[in-house]
Write a structure and sequence with these properties.
The protein has 503 residues and is of the alpha/beta class. The chain starts with 11 loop residues before the first helix and ends with a strand. The chain is elongated and about 80 Å long. The strands form two sheets. It has a ten-stranded mixed beta sheet with strand order 8-17-16-15-14-13-12-9-10-11, with helices on both faces. Strands 3-2-1-4-5-6-7-18 form an eight-stranded parallel beta sheet, with helices on one face. The protein contains 21 helices and 18 strands. Helix 3 runs parallel beside helix 4.
Length: 503
């Protein structure tokens, strides 16, 4: 597989078009099916060499055809085998019918399958193109397999997972391993689909890179390849201002911790210097906890206007612990022409005044990143959040287009989308990042990247990835403070590969 395909995410519709283009280019469609089925059989024998029996569940379409090819290969290898089909196999068409004809063994109705000890199930019922609830007969078969705890190898995607959105369509298998073809699909990375795929193997069935690239959009898996060209190493002659000056705005005396976490994360992530901007009542509290981070007192919008004349200020973080209301809105609107991260309270402050924010971002043309979690997203983009027909990717893209800002839609399956449509889905974050203050650390890393001159989209994508790596380094007992201490450098030679995906 070419390097250009490693980070691709391909929607089911794009994959269908790619398959069609491959055939029009002269590649026999049945040869692609044979490559896919052989890859599945090889994975089954490699992963479960001691299986008592392989049970292949075949659907009525091309996914089922892959299953029949895999069954024939397993039978030829001498493995014990049983095949169960959904529907009337006499009605199969095209390549699926040809694959069925090439399998000489008995085929039983799926409703008759009762899991046995030692079975390994190969799920070739429905692939990534599923966009409706599974038939009751299939849901019942899934329940029997799940109750038996038999391991499952999924062909393309566990049956029941919508490949576009990752949603469960009635029920789904929970696979130990999934074999997909040419590129990962959104359903492999978006929740809850991600939790049902097990380890993911992306297998090259022989479609040329140029054919794949011609149909794909701007959707990628978030890896250093997306942003590393904007994260250059340090010039030996550099100084702190050239490394970027980040300003983080603190809230009042009783809520200063979140901003300090962002400030320290910004410093550890590479900003040359960081200033914590504090209201007068919080100066003493902040001063007691700061050493390398500088402190500046600021109470009113007039003070901010005067300070903004200093063009050495590279980027700003507004929101963590700041407080919801008029002051947050005023500060945000003054900063929209600069490199700016709006998080938490700053996002919520525009719940009833979002047009003011969106119009100002569009007019001022700053590098603005907004970082809503699900609740904040619903407050700022209620009509998008309520549209159940949209995937999380599509919701982030719609919000970015509406707001004219980069949207970092947080969660275990964080999505970063630019107004242009460029989008990445993150995949390296461990579950223990769900801890108090973790989002404040992420915000500070974004701010550091912006201060160093990275474009907003790349700054956000790189920050999400480094945040995930910090979580892995900190371990399961991670706290926000230990995340700050474990932010990794931009060292690509030592990059840990994404452990879930085999390419």
């Amino acid at each position: 597989m070419g390097e250009a395909l490693r980070d691709l995410l391909v929607t089911p519709a794009e994959m269908a078009a790619i398959d069609e283009d491959a055939v029009h280019s002269g590649i026999e469609s049945f040869s692609l099916m044979c490559s896919a089925g052989m890859a599945v059989s090889a994975a089954a024998l490699r992963l479960f060499p001691s299986a008592s029996r392989f049970v292949v569940l075949c659907g009525p379409g091309n996914n089922g055809g892959d299953g029949y090819v895999a069954a024939a290969a397993l039978a030829e290898s001498g493995a014990s085998l049983a095949v169960f089909a959904l529907g009337d196999v006499g009605k199969l068409k095209g390549d699926a019918a040809r694959a069925r004809a090439a399998y000489a063994g008995e085929i039983q109705a799926i409703g008759t399958y009762e899991p046995q000890a030692g079975d390994v199930v190969i799920d070739a019922l429905f692939g990534a193109g599923l966009a409706r609830d599974l038939p009751d007969e299939v849901q019942e078969a899934i329940r029997r397999v799940e109750d038996s705890r038999r391991p499952v190898i999924a062909v393309d995607l566990p049956s029941g997972i919508d490949g576009r959105s990752g949603e469960i369509r009635g029920a789904s298998f929970t696979a130990a391993h999934t074999v997909t073809f040419m590129a990962a699909k959104p359903g492999h990375l978006l929740l809850p689909g991600r939790t049902r795929c097990g380890t993911l193997e992306v297998f090259d069935i022989g479609i040329p890179d140029r054919v794949v690239r011609a149909r794909t959009g701007d959707l990628r898996i978030n890896t250093p390849a997306v942003w590393q060209q904007h994260a250059s190493g340090l010039d030996p002659a550099t100084h702190k201002y050239k490394r970027g000056h980040l300003a983080v705005f603190s809230g009042p005396q009783i809520s200063t911790g979140a901003a300090r976490l962002s400030a320290m994360a910004g410093l550890n992530a590479g900003a040359g210097l960081v200033t914590l901007v504090s209201p007068p009542d919080a100066i003493a509290a902040n001063a007691a906890h700061l050493t390398a981070v500088m402190l500046k007192e600021m109470g009113k919008t007039g003070d901010l206007a005067a300070w903004l004349k200093d063009r050495r200020l590279g980027a700003f973080v507004l929101g963590p612990g700041f407080g919801v209301g008029k002051k947050a809105r005023a500060f945000a609107l003054m900063l929209c022409g600069r490199a700016l991260v709006l998080d938490a309270d700053a996002v919520t402050s525009f719940k009833e005044r979002r047009t003011d924010l969106f119009n100002t971002i569009a007019m001022e043309g700053g590098q603005v990143v907004m970082t809503p979690h699900e609740g904040e997203f619903a407050r700022l983009f209620p009509e998008i959040a309520a549209d159940t027909a949209l995937s999380k990717i599509e919701k982030a893209q719609a919000a970015a287009k509406l707001s004219h800002a980069v949207i970092l839609y947080k969660g275990p399956d964080t999505v970063v989308a630019a107004p242009s449509g460029r989008t990445v889905v993150n995949a390296n974050a461990p579950p223990w990042l769900a801890t108090a203050g973790s989002g404040d650390v992420l915000t500070g890393i974004i701010g550091a990247h912006l201060a160093q001159g990275m474009p907003a989209f790349e700054a956000a994508a790189a920050a999400v990835w480094r945040h995930g790596e910090a979580g892995m380094r900190a371990g399961q007992g991670a706290t926000a403070e230990t995340l700050v201490a474990n932010i990794p450098p931009f060292d690509y030679s030592a990059t840990r590969p994404m452990g879930r995906v085999a390419l």
